[in-house]
Specification:
By secondary structure, the chain is mainly α. Among the domains are: 12-206; 413-475. Helices cover 67% and strands 0% of the residues. It comes from Streptomyces gamaensis. This is HEAT repeat domain-containing protein.
């Protein structure tokens, strides 16, 4: 994750960077050159805060089609000299995913560009995954020798090839290249790499480096602490908690409590998680003390341990801690939002307003707070929810806010729900398909288009059909 440079929400660029439906609508109404310039900025400089959970590629690909946009800028970006130095997925992943969607819509130039980049680009594995979903067997087979040429015939090259085959997200190309009839030039080497990957996994299973049966509580805690001394550092407190569950008995409780209160960092984090998961009577007091620890690992483990608790005592403590201004207070507010009762609505609303005022519309705890506002149907939260919807840079948070508005804002169906039909997130489009008023002519036309779009998700198309009925033609 990183912190991208996001333009103001009232600008065309800001709307497109956020993936809002209004971004598409404004781009189609703007001068074509201006719209394409903003679109290229988004695709070539990924605006997402977390590209692993937020969607933009289909959203941008559809806009490329609407604007009849060329691919020269994407080509220059992919084959820029920086590609030789920066092979991170963040630099080229979005552009490659957009090309993949364009290829599925029949853009032959996008397919050709993916083939070129898979053969010579730094992030070739992503391009290969896009081709695996869309290209034919003959083209993929022809690509095999170019890809394997990346791996020299040395022990290091063979090991890297085995890792690439083992870790491939889409295995289809490797299966084709292992076929003697389809790819005789690559079959022997790819089969050897697949066998080596299986052998490596078998060897790791024979020589485990973690806890073994018969270990004591002290040995598990020491193993967790030893991870901090390694290079690179290994944070072992989460797996160590599972191991502790397997080896600890009632007679070990006092030792674990002592470790949670006074132990070294990783051992303390492990003990805290263990006590919280087992709802120990001392857990909440130990969590409160650890949350103020200057060591980041201990404080973070304490907050995470509290968030995982499901007992009524944790809820009662959350009502006390919700007024704190630290991470534990945010966790308490999130817990009340997700699990509190109707009598907690005032606390959730106060936390929502306080968080937006102090931390802005992208605070992490807002994911839970806006969901809680919808779950508890806090109608007076609608103004702050509308502010979060407009301003947040996170399409994931905007989607949850739209769900909350659907439950709290009577104007949602005729307002934001219409825009949400063009949103970048599938779940937000599905929500809009169920709520947007059909009194707006744009809604009916958009619903019919979504139903006929082969790239649209099945859940969205199901929601569309639930509005029209099975007997009404959609195209």
């Amino acid at each position: 994750m990183f912190d991208p440079d996001i333009a103001p929400s009232g600008t065309l660029l800001g709307l497109l960077q956020r993936g809002r439906g209004d971004g598409t609508l404004h781009a189609l109404a703007a001068p074509r050159a201006e719209a394409l310039a903003a679109l290229h900025t988004c695709v070539l400089r990924d605006p997402r805060r977390d590209w692993q959970v937020e969607n933009r590629s289909l959203y941008y690909a559809r806009l490329y089609l609407e604007l009849h946009g060329g691919l020269d800028e994407i080509e220059q970006h992919l084959f820029h000299p920086d590609d030789l130095l920066d092979t991170s997925e963040e630099r080229t992943g979005l552009a490659l995913a957009v090309l993949g969607h364009l290829a599925s819509y029949g853009r032959a130039d996008a397919l050709a560009l993916l083939r070129r980049y898979a053969a010579g680009g730094g992030n070739w594995a992503w391009a290969l995954d896009e081709l695996a979903l869309r290209d034919d067997d003959a083209a993929l087979a022809a690509l095999g020798p170019r890809v394997l040429a990346r791996f020299p015939r040395t022990p290091e090259g063979d090991a890297a090839l085995a890792a690439a085959v083992r870790d491939a997200f889409e295995p289809r190309p490797w299966r084709l290249w292992a076929d003697e009839q389809l790819s005789p030039a690559t079959a022997a080497r790819v089969r050897a790499a697949r066998e080596q990957g299986s052998f490596d996994r078998w060897q790791r299973q024979l020589r485990p480096t973690g806890p073994r049966p018969g270990w004591s509580v002290r040995e598990v805690l020491d193993w967790a602490q030893e991870g901090l001394a390694l290079h690179p550092t290994q944070l072992r407190h989460v797996p160590a908690t599972r191991c502790l569950t397997a080896v600890a008995g009632p007679e070990d409780r006092l030792e674990i409590i002592e470790a949670a209160a006074f132990g070294p960092e990783a051992a303390r984090a492990t003990a805290l998680r263990y006590l919280a998961e087992h709802h120990d009577p001392q857990a909440l007091d130990l969590v409160e003390a650890a949350a103020a620890d200057p060591g980041g690992l201990v404080a973070e483990a304490a907050v995470t341990a509290f968030e995982r608790m499901r007992c009524t005592e944790a809820l009662e403590r959350a009502r006390i801690w919700v007024h704190r201004g630290d991470a534990l207070g945010a966790a308490a507010a999130g817990m009340l939002a997700c699990r509190g009762g109707a009598y907690d609505a005032a606390l959730v609303l106060a936390a929502l307003r306080r968080t937006v005022r102090a931390e802005g519309p992208d605070a992490p705890v807002l994911l839970e707070l806006v969901q809680g506002a919808g779950r508890l149907r806090i109608t007076c939260a609608a103004p702050v929810l509308r502010h979060v919807y407009r301003e947040t840079a996170s399409s994931q948070l905007r989607g949850r806010t739209a769900q909350a508005l659907a439950a709290t804002d009577p104007s949602f169906a005729a307002g934001f729900a219409v825009e949400c039909l063009w949103d970048c997130e599938e779940s937000t489009r599905e929500l809009a398909a169920r709520h947007a008023t059909t009194a707006d002519a744009r809604v009916v036309a958009r619903l019919r288009r979504l139903a006929a779009d082969p790239a649209e998700e099945a859940e969205v198309q199901t929601a569309v059909r639930s509005r029209f009925g099975t007997d009404v033609p959609l195209v």
